Amino acid sequence: MEKTCTDALPLTMNSSEKQETICIFGAGDFGRSLGFKMIQCGYSVVFGSRNPQMSSLLSNGAEVLSYSEAAQKSDIIIIAIHREHYDFLTELTEVLNGKILVDVSNNLKINQYPESNAEYLAQLVPGTHVVKAFNTVSAWALQSGALDASRQVFACGNDSKAKQRVMDIVHTLGLTPLDQGSLMAAKEIENYPLQLFPMWRFPIYLSAVLCIFLFFYCVIREVIYPYVYKKKDETFRMAISIPNRVFPIAALTLLALVYLPGVIAAILQLYRGTKYRRFPDWLDHWMLCRKQLGLIALGFAFLHILYTFVIPIRYYVRWKLRNTTVTQIANKDNPLSTSSAWHSDSYLALGILGFFLFVLLGITSLPSVSNTVNWREFRFVQSKLGYLTLILCTAHTLDYGGKRFLSPSTLRWYLPSAYVLALIIPCTVLVIKFILIMPCIDKTLTRIRQGWERNSKISSALNGKTDI
Asked: What is the pTM of this model?
């Protein structure tokens, strides 16, 4: 079994075991951190520097030489310098011939140059074997101990033996090497650390637009309308009351948008009669963003819970409660309404159960949890329990409206209450899903997803037998 390194320094070294020497060009933050990690794992490290005398910041046990002298000490050379300073390597063409050059550089912008830094390095020093690696690991991760995603090191190169040697080093350092193929993948690897939440961009923009729309919609109904018709100043509602309407509506709408693309995909497959045609690009991207949409929806649900908890301590609520109490004392006749009690308790119960399942969906979407369940279990939670969550949350909203659902008295400037808007997409998804699970339709959809095609001669010849 191949030995891997931990973060602790080795207490003893086997003198009979020959240390492999690694050369590092560049004594910056990353070069020093990588060198220190390699020394911890038993490698002999020699640094190549333009100023060999300035070695006070380097690790004990590391040798510092000029570029030419350092290159002669090892056949694996890590280029830990920026692309702008690669030109000096042309002077070392003879010394570097046949050696493995590991490019660890990154750029400042995505697609900053026509070719990747690794491809440029291979053109600059043609007699070498260039491997792209280590650019997805930070100096901080090397110093503090890489965890989770920071353990992954993408590697690519045209020479399979050179790439394998570099990946062996990565594994010895306690990191996880991932082979990405030839050097043509270097540009994608270099762009990876520069991406800022690529799968979160659409969900965040959509959530922001949705929240802004709902906020101004509620402001028109609950602030501007009372001021125009009753001269009442209700601007204080913009701090707590309106956000506490916006967040649950956004949560329910985004949760419905998680399941809407699956419904649309099922309708397309039924319409086309086959699963062997690509979905539109917008639908593909939407389906890939479902996890992010669900997590943002869960965040809005948490905000709704927090805002609800502070309602009893608000001045407006306490003032209204005092006035209501005085009125009740004056009237002395306020019997318990069983129907109102049922309505209130069922509304709260549906909300609590819906939020519980919502949290369960969020937990199972975490990689550390989803990796411990099989595909059937994961699908059961995310699909079956997911739709149950959507049903409970939609019922919670319907119960909140009660008899006021479409009452004309709730309209302001012909605008219905905001919670009515929250029901449009969830109810649409649930109705279509109910139609799709009807036996006559579900049977056809299942056959299509197993490979059957409506207008296929091959399917007719196979009499329903399909390839997996």
From this structure: 0.70
